[in-house]
Amino acid sequence: MRILRSVILITIALLTFSFVKVNNSNKDKERAMNIGQEKDLKVAYFASGCFWCVEAIFESVRGVEEAISGYAGGHTNNPTYQKIGTGRTGHSETVAVYYNPKIVSFQTLVDVYYGSHNPTTKNGQHPDYGSQYRSIAFYNNNNEKEIIDRTIKKLNKEIYKGKIATEVTKLTKFYPAEDYHQNYERLHPNNPYVRNVSIPRLNRFKKKFPELLKKEKH
Fold it and tell me: Peptide methionine sulphoxide reductase MsrA domain location, by residue (predicted)?
């Protein structure tokens, strides 16, 4: 009886933990999809390597209210971190950037995007390589597409000599990533990858665009 009771208690505990974890994840995803409507914000979508890095960069920009890590650009439904890691789902690690257009423009966000990664790398950003880390600038409408295309043309002429490999794709579906990926850099500052890759990338961006940064909270 004691063994049976122990098994039952362990099973109940595991089911409870699973429910809480799924429920919290669902709440985070619901928050991600509703935040724009609640604050009358616009949403831009960008992929340029590890979404931990990209999320932290955009969240440092004045006028950006929230950045959500997720998946987009693929051909399968309900992708997960494990599935896109195979490179077979077509998705790229993508960040949804919720911004106030009265404070920061879409053009500025595109400038941030191109100023914070190497767009000439076809599949990846050092040290992460594979189609899930490729560079994609998503657009929601023709105006956004024109801004992206115009920026690429300008940068190809002035800096990259026609070598920009960024895909320019209409956003069809964005899937928020698992809860543990959200705000990863801020919540895990001592993670080796964060220390050696994410934070240096963020600091390079801050040094390049100090005029776009939010004021430090004291």
Answer: 44-193
Q: How far is CA 72 from the centre of its chain?
A: 10
Residues 6+ apart with CB under 8 A from 189: 195, 199
Is a pLDDT exceeding 50 seen at residue 89? yes
- Please determine, for residue 168, whether its predicted confidence score (pLDDT) is greater than 50: yes
Distance separating alpha carbons of residues 8 and 172, to the nearest angstrom: 45
Burial class (CB in 10 A: 0-12, 13-18, 19+), 49: buried
- For residue 30, the model assigns a pLDDT of 58
Residue 124 predicted with pLDDT over 80: yes
- CA 90 to CA 72: how far, in whole Å? 8
Q: What is the pTM of this model?
A: 0.84
Task: Spell out the domains of the chain, with CATH numbers in brackets.
Answer: 45-212 (3.30.1060.10)
Catalytic residue chosen out of the listed positions 50, 84, 171, 177: 50
Nearest to 27 by CA among 131, 176, 160: 176
Beta strands per DSSP E along 58-110: 64-72, 92-99
- Across the range 3-7, mean pLDDT stands at 41
Q: Which residue has the higher pLDDT, 28 or 154?
A: 154
Residue 187 burial (CB count, 10 A): 11
Would strands 135-139 and 167-170 be described as parallel, antiparallel, or unpaired?
A: parallel
